[in-house]
Specification:
CATH superfamily of the largest domain: Periplasmic binding protein-like II
Order of helices and strands: EHEHHEEEEHEHEHEEHHEEEHH
Strand order of the largest sheet: 2-1-3-10-4
Shape: globular
Number of strands: 13
Largest sheet: 5 strands, mixed
């Protein structure tokens, strides 16, 4: 089959799912072995997940078929994430599609990926990161009135907002992006919290105020704004193809944040966050752990050069020197 031409990604809309796509091939730069190669990408079926998978496809020099998978997190939108166990509720079924051979690789939102990679898989590639920040949608942080009503399904977001503003009232909010925006428009809340990367990737033209929260107010989830691509650990051919779109600087900071989360022994079920950046002195990371109600919150900032050692050191400091183990005991 002849390769497709052009490089435009098919559109993804909030209201529907476009048909599966194949990524473009650059005949000038593609190795002969890749000219007729076609890979299968496992992905969730949301508009954002499809956009992310097609963005990856647009960077690869081979054909791509989408394998759309429904996850526990997708099917149980009325259940809080932490009540489902938290770990991998948006990725387990997608990972399974790769492990059992239905797909060759998986594209995840980095923030959804558990800290421990399952046996048989490898986190092969992390492309360039988008905006890692959280946003307040519907109001600015500075203008929130006393007792403002905020909706979020994230224990991390709720804990940090409550730490700064104990007067805030919170409601659980789950569902896809369109569902959450519709609930905001219905007038039930003063604001909701969303990832900046989701707004930017889908190019949402929001009529309401969007306030991007500085990490000093809200540390993002580990690997937020980054994509994480997994494949089978023994699939050397696919590994070679995917590593071509690795972004070295993003991989370093994401590995640092994931090392922090791994040392805590948690995943997205914890009220914990971390944000790492690269500077002249190496990698700078700030990590945070809080109680569910936000009454207790501990943070630590450090600079280093080794991602694994640095991330783990920050987590160990919070656990051993700042009372983090007691916080974890209360959470569990």
């Amino acid at each position: 089959m002849s390769p497709p031409s052009g490089s435009r990604m098919p559109p993804v809309t909030l209201g529907g799912i476009a048909s599966p796509t194949r990524c473009a091939i650059s005949l000038a730069s593609t190795e002969p072995a890749l000219m007729g190669m076609k890979l299968r990408a496992a992905t969730r079926g949301s508009a954002l997940a499809l956009w992310q998978t097609r963005q990856v496809a647009s960077q690869l020099e081979c054909g791509i078929d989408e394998v759309i998978v429904s996850t526990m997190g997708d099917r149980n939108t009325d259940v809080p994430i932490h009540s489902m166990g938290g770990k991998g509720v948006f990725v387990k079924e997608v990972q399974a599609a790769v492990l059992d051979g239905r797909a060759d690789f998986a594209v995840h939102s980095g923030k959804d990926l558990p800290a421990v990679t399952p046996d048989g898989l490898v986190l092969v590639c992390v492309p360039a990161r988008a905006d890692a920040r959280d946003t307040l949608v519907g109001a600015s942080w500075a203008s929130l009135p006393p007792g403002a009503h905020i909706a979020t399904g994230s224990v991390r977001r709720r804990a940090q907002l409550a730490w700064h503003r104990p007067d805030l009232v919170f409601s659980e909010l789950r569902g896809n992006i369109q569902t959450r925006l519709e609930k905001l428009e219905s007038g039930g809340f003063d604001a909701i919290v969303m990832a900046a990367a989701a707004i930017d990737r889908l190019e949402l033209d929001l009529t309401t105020l969007v306030d991007r929260l500085d990490p000093s107010i809200m540390l993002p989830q580990v690997a937020q704004g980054a994509l994480a691509i997994e494949c089978r650990a023994n699939d050397t051919e696919t590994i070679a193809v995917l590593r071509a779109i690795q972004h070295a600087d993003t991989r370093r900071v994401v590995d640092t944040e994931r090392a922090f989360l791994h040392e805590l022994g948690g995943d997205c079920d914890l009220p914990a966050g971390a944000h790492a950046t690269l500077g002249d002195d190496g990698i700078e990371i700030t990590g945070m752990l809080a109680s569910l109600d936000g009454r207790a919150l501990i943070r630590e900032r450090r600079v280093g050069t080794d991602p694994d050692q640095l991330g783990r050191a920050v987590a160990r400091f919070l656990l051993d020197e700042r009372g983090g183990r007691d916080l974890l005991a209360d959470l569990r």
